Amino acid sequence: MAKAQPKLDWLNAAREQLNVDPGYRKLGSTDVTLGLAIGGECRLVVFEAFTISAVRVIDDTELRDADIVIRMTPKDWNAYLRNRQKGRAASLLSLDIDKAVVTGADPLKRNKLARYNLSIQAFLDAGAALAA
Amino acid sequence: MARAKASQAAADSNKGQPGAIDGIPQPRFDWTGRSNQWGTRVKPGKHGLRLGDLNVGIYGEIPEQWQDQTRNPRGAIPRRGVPPIGYAIRDKADLWAESAADLYEEAIQRRWAPATDIPWDSVTPLNEGLERAICQVCTELCQYANCDIETISSWQHQMAYGYHEVKQFLATAAFDGARHFEAFRKRALVNGGGLGLEGPGEVNRMILESRGGWTEAVAYLLLLRGTFTVTLLRYLEKAACNDAERALYQYTLQDKARHMAYGLEHLQYAIAHQEDMTLIMQQLMFIGERVFAREMKDHVLREALAVIFAGGIEEAGTTGMATYRQMMTAFMQDYVGSCEWLGVRRNPETMPRILVQYLPQKEEA
Q1: How far is CA B18 from the centre of its chain?
Q2: How far apart are CA B198 and CA B247, in angstroms?
Q3: Could you tell me if residue A86 is inside a domain?
Q4: Domain tally, chain A
């Protein structure tokens, strides 16, 4: 059986969508670099002020530049996006309680998950809708 | 008296001059041209024009000790003869965190209003046991929020104006406390329930009565209580019964996490810049953990949380308590992890058993 490919092609589209979304801006300034390690694929998403300034393809050694990293298998990642889009999945905060999917190099960096939870979730939810 | 006479004389001398206003002294404009640094032109960036962006030239010189005892804004020319205010906190190491200005801006920009940003209409009737438990937890969270306000307010006025970034950030943190009080009270009263029992308040008292300095208050208010509150809010968010509760915990969590960012950074700064602070912190946490442990013996909050986690009273003693245990483990891991990151080692052998029991046991070699 073929391995699941992680759905990551929506990242830039979600970035562009949120950068012009007044609802996202209303959440307030967000300054966090979010690493995604989904199977063997890695990305760095840079949240800066009121926009998402960059989405970069990186290798796993560059994940050290991230404040926080979401690590999931492609299967779990795809299922999370799918279920989130259907309104059946918990928030990333809750998912992290169950499956410890978010890491941070130190308590201050890890704290950014809670500090920016609404903005990070808005990005994932925009992606979930696009990936559907 | 002499000055009043001179002023009157100046006003009188104005009479008869073309365009002069009766009773108002002739302007001298001798204050113009007086500035420690003129020609400053700060430009807004991506975030807008932030408080921290203004720290240029002499306005960005933040000394290790602030000698001025007045409300003179940093960088302004002091006026002679102003009676001292009596600020007790005048050492940078006693309050500073590098990100204070940014956190202030973040607090302003990420503000929310419980009245309109929480979808209260999504709250629907729950079984009585669950509603009572939610109301009980909200009652105690109101007390935590009150403690935040009172603690911050009782120290803030003692801080010298040379460190206005911290004073301004703490003003937002106190306001966050007011908003949290409002929001939790609203949740308790919105769905046919009401406020429950007052919590024991021992930790609140310890925080409020900490007299050793602001750093000590931060250790108790944020490192110990703050870590617990953040963990609590995360688990409550996971167990939320409706969109209103989910939003309530998500918003309050982002505020508390911002307070934690200040707390951790300040403690890191204080430890790095004050001899013996590591040892002092170890002793403080030794004391604080005992008060915290005593409060955790109170069964009310524990049981209310178990009911929420189980969705009702029926499974509270089993699945609810299992989740409570999981939450306490997460709290203890985060608390001990933060202490160790700060260099404040915690020895499980000297910590209260009621807390250590939640730490994962290390396997013997």
Answers
A1: 57
A2: 25
A3: yes
A4: 1
